[in-house]
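Journal club side-thread
Mid-discussion, someone asked how the predicted structure for our own chain would compare to the paper's figures. Pasting it here so we can look after the session.
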Amino acid sequence: MQKAVPTPADLTITPRDRRFGRTEGHVQDRWWNNGNPFATAFFNALSTTFPKGEAFFIESVKAFREGASPKLAEEIRAFTMQEVMHTREHVAFNRRVVDSGYDVTFLDEQVDHVLELIKTRPAIVNLAATMALEHFTAILARELLENPKHLVGADLEAAALWRWHAVEEIEHKAVAYDTWLHATKGWSRFRRWKLKSLMMLVITTRFIPERIKGMLNLLEQDGITGWKAKRGILWYAFGNPGMFRKILGAWAAYFLPGFHPWNSDEKHLIARYEADNPVAV
């Protein structure tokens, strides 16, 4: 049993209006992540979900902003601004993926299929899904920032984009969760825990397999198929650098009574990013 640590009172969610890959003459290589097709496929497959997915996150959270405290209302506003800019930058990134020779039609259709299913669900269920997905993105973001190995040798503009996105995912990681607490304030603790836990299980059984399908599709376009593709994905995800292996503990923490995203404090990662990327004046 853990005791929930609320969102820090001194936390400021800061929308950073930055653009990446716009420099004249910049060309993003097909295998932009250190020449590694598996690392490249992982990030490319993830990026294709962001533009439409983040629009869904925004709508799910905004649906329950009425009656929110002034602090939460401001955090929802800043969260929305960050997600809008993430969408803009990943649209541009995905365009560069296409320009490098990939067809992302299959990956787009994956996202469209999920969003069609979402339309039939109650708003509170969509908020629970957003909360689970925001936890996924936050723990992936933490691993990305803590372990430089994930982007060593990557295209500098692409790497900068992913680090920028990661730090803002950490910064706003509790907005959907705090909105959920506001929206379900009349619920029992068990009812809250039951729905959020069931939704995380549903999301997990979709999120990981769907990303793997997307990676397989991209790798097939590189001529990497069959067991070679599957073995490479498994090694990348659970061996070295082992992104999914390294987030398992943080993923499991979501099911504990007393969970809150800020039970794990990553403000030091935000501070380090700010020190390394000062705002231009």
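Post-session note: The two ends are 47 Å apart (CA to CA).
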